[in-house]
Fold each of these.
Amino acid sequence: MLPEKLKTMLSDLPPGFMYLVLLATSLALVPPALILRARAVPSEHRRIHIIQNMDNQPKFFDQQQNLLFRDTRSMRPRVPGTVSRSQMVGDTHYFLGTVEGDFATTFPSQVEVNEYLLDRGRTCFEIYCLPCHGVQGKGDGLVHQRAMVLLNAGTNGTTWVQPKSLHEEAIKDYPLGQIFWTISNGVRNMAGYKSQIRVEDRWAIVAWVEALQLSQDASPEDVSGADSLPVINKVLPGEDMEEEDDS
Ligand code: HEC
């Protein structure tokens, strides 16, 4: 029941205009239909992604193939001998100075005790230990002497624990591993040095501490060919002072 006016308007239109309108309308439905299909039907192709924002990056996933490697696996096997940092060091003798939970009584097999090692030990001892323990390891280094001056002057808040003499009987009886452990981890008021001194150098210091201890207790029989040397029967310079230190 169209009004008369509309009827005349429609009959005035060119012939076939209605078909054109119908065709245009159906064509206009094609793109939305395609979009709906793309959203509903699974596809093998990656969807069109115009702004990437680094959403997709080339990378290999587990169990994928990677032709870069001869065995074509993207997952690489562990390099033999790899140990994670949190895992045990393995060789406790070398790295901790312990064997089966006790302090080691020998040098580890990696450490060859020779002149070079002693030389290295002396250098490291004189850098790291001498300031407190003194050149001979008697616990009388310059740091100690300075601390005593401050202590005697009553400088506010100075407290001081004397560095041990490395020639005390107890310390002479320490197994090698315990000296190594002490250098590494410190003891009571002494700080540990494992972050500053490499493992091999710590063993070198152990060797030098042993040499110092031997040297302070040596008798002529310990030296080959000592008979041919002149006998020195007097008090060596400095010995008087040490007596006082010990009291
Ligand atoms: C900053 C000063 C200082 C330095 C440097 C230092 N020590 Fe000590 N050391 C001490 C003090 C202090 C003690 C005594 C700690 C205590 O009894 O509380 C000590 C104790 C020791 C002991 C005896 C441990 C025990 O069980 O009684 C040994 C062994 C030792 N030091 C070796 C070394 C060696 C080797 C080095 C060099 C790597 C070194 N120290 C560097 C201050 C120092």
Amino acid sequence: MSLSSSPTAQAQDSVLTFERVGFGYPGRAIISDISFEVRRGELLALMGGSGVGKTTLLRLIAGLLSPGIGSIRAFGEPVDARRQDRLYAQRKRMGLLFQFGALFTDLSCLDNVAFPLREHSGLPEDLIRDIALLKLEAVGLRGAADLMPSQISGGMARRVALARAIALDPELILYDEPFAGLDPISLGVTARLIQRLNRALGASAIIVTHDIQETFAIADRVIVLAPTPVGAEIRASGTPKDLMASEDPYVQQFLHGHEHGPVSFHHPAAPLADLFGGA
Ligand SMILES: Nc1ncnc2c1ncn2[C@@H]1O[C@H](COP(=O)(O)OP(=O)(O)OP(=O)(O)O)[C@@H](O)[C@H]1O
Ligand SMILES: [Mg+2]
């Protein structure tokens, strides 16, 4: 038996595990029975229709929400909001780039990137400044260090947020729609940047995105979530190539953006006739 297939080696190799995780709000199931694993160095894409529960899943990983059922482990230990010290230590090892994660408008680009270092690292100020500059250099924006967020474009702001997310050399980076609103060139540049950062840091990452082409070019593995009456479940999981070859109608519709198929465009609602009092 090779070492890599032994249970211990697998456990050491695993940065994140979801085991039969379910979560809902009162009266509303969001995700159901989700199990998956992220290995060290792996880039996992998480896809699925709007409102299916992708951001919720990232919030569960970061311990901002607690699963109603099942267990989540990060870096070999349970993610548990009741264990604040441990959760804090786990979060220090994660980089978060949230969907609407804005920069602090009253801080320069450099100070935005330095912020997590000042909060968590305990390093001296001159070293913090050097690290923040290096991170800005990594996203091609060292020259914008002293600019305020209002002085840079939206795409540049996204890259500064990226530099901030990797400030503490995270082992697991969670990207929620890092490409939203970027033009096709910036999108390609950002995708390759994410891949490069991952390799340079030896980090794992989960990318939530709707940009299939760019994501499939960089992802090692893809998970597609689909809604069910009891909450979203994993509908398909595999390499980008596996998914492209999938014959599942949901996966097909999702990947090719067809209007008609099992994916519903409408949020569940009462029939319009009810709203207007019938015919
Ligand atoms: N605080 C809340 N209370 C009740 N329902 C909520 C709450 N927050 C989110 N939801 C619901 O949870 C579901 C999943 O939301 P989530 O933000 O995870 O979706 P998403 O897959 O990230 O969608 P998008 O692609 O549009 O960002 C949505 O239907 C949303 O309405
Ligand atoms: Mg979302």
Amino acid sequence: MGAYDQESVRRFFDRFGQREWERLERDVAGQANYAIHRKLLAPEVQPGMRILDAGCGPGRYAIDLIRAGARVTLADLSPVQLELAAGNVRDAGLEGHVDGRHEVDICDLGVFATASFDGVVCYGGALSYTRERHPGALAELVRVVRPGGFLALSAMSLYGILLLLGVLDIPGFLETMPHHLDLGDDPSALPGCVMTVQGSPEFHQPMALFAAQHLQGLVSAAGCDIVRTAVANPLSWGLVALEKTAASAAARETLLELELALCEDPRLADRGDHLIVIARKR
Ligand SMILES: C[S@@+](CC[C@H](N)C(=O)[O-])C[C@H]1O[C@@H](n2cnc3c(N)ncnc32)[C@H](O)[C@@H]1O
């Protein structure tokens, strides 16, 4: 199955470069994903807060946090993404609100003192890339939040991936399933966390996929109370008619409205690309 390979993840995001910024604006699905993540984050952020953006990528959420009045510490495994984040924050005229920039792995946040942030954002899947190391990474993310502070986390949805089987060109995937997803001997007893198989071309990087309840359980066991949960983006993730939808302004607007209205509906909790958990440290 293969263990977490930090160097492979770093290399991928170094090469991915600017495309990581474009991911959240390139199509309706990306736009919905971004809008939902923002919706969940906004109520947590108060002016003057010190927030760690862990796995900050090119800094989209860091800019939002600063605009909401926070001071932000940028952290990422990829030096290229960190450089992009610094550049984007600078271009937005906000660099005076950045407390630091750190090339770190969320598996070891030893560079930061315990309880040193009012909030930690880890959006977009860094936790999933840590694979079997995810419990340790989660413990680190929680450690650096002060008691009463918030954790805003998102990770890849297991059932979101399985539901794509209905819309992708899938026979090849199914024929070679053991090369892509490790569903174990008895898929009727699927665990709450499933690893993609190292080397599968179906996934841009090997990762851990989570069931919503399982992820919430992990966050709770790591010392947090769950405040809110959501899924991004329950309706447009894998939508077959994405391009057709995007061509109609009215259709696009309705889809985005529905996504925002339904993202916290527990009946959709296991769909979509990312599972989002907002939690408060006990
Ligand atoms: C999909 S991007 C998300 C970026 C940004 N948070 C967003 O949502 O737009 C994932 C980011 O996490 C970083 N990353 C992946 N694994 C990480 C790890 N173990 N520690 C720190 N950063 C990591 C990657 O380099 C990349 O910049």
Amino acid sequence: MSAPDGLLERLRGRVLPTVQAVLPLVLRIAGARVPADARRRSCLVLAPHGDDEVLGCGATILARRSAGARVVVAYVTDGGAFPDWLDPVDNVAKRLAETDSAAAALGLDKSDVVQLAFPDGLLESAERSGALGAALERVLSDVQPDDVLTTSPWDPHPDHAALGRAVRSAVRPGGPRLLEYPIWQWESILAWPRMLRDAHRPEIVRTKEHRQRKSEALMAYSSQLDVDQGGELPPGKGLPPVLFDRLTSGYEIFFPVHSAAADARARR
Ligand SMILES: [Zn+2]
């Protein structure tokens, strides 16, 4: 490695962890507290995989359910791709059982859980073929939510990004409010400039009141967590610690997005 490269690496090694530590604080300070009556708004939560709904929105779901709002969760993929050293058929069966347990822990009615069952890891193909968009249109039409909560086109995970793009296309101007929740962005700060460019002032939901139940819902996903996180995977094979710590911390954050311009930018 040349000297300038070495210097760059050392700088990255120092700067990136600092930004990663400071960014959540900055966003929390800059964010708006969600007014209490927002809890009564019905919502559709779109989760690329079983566990994303808990990680990104668990406390929000619990808050809305306890305020009497209808919450529908649609699991978009079948969860077959991970753990990638196990049989995908077994993974799908296990994840289905885990989503049932998590949904119950979140206080959801069975009739308000939707399994779209696209193959895990291949959501970009479903997006390109139009199958994902068609499925989203059907769910939106059935549920008619006030708010839609989903991952962003700028989430570094390809399934999460494909879902984000398809949802931006499916949610029409004048339709439900579209709110994007970050997941894998917490591990990759390079995703944030585009994320922030597209969004309005973020909304902050404090998790304190529902933290215990959110944690119980997360424990339903033992196939995705390592033993140190309360799951069954070998140490180091579960969620990255940065992501796990952030997504189980004191607040959830949502980025309101709505504009044809943002949609067009995501497709460029
Ligand atoms: Zn996911």
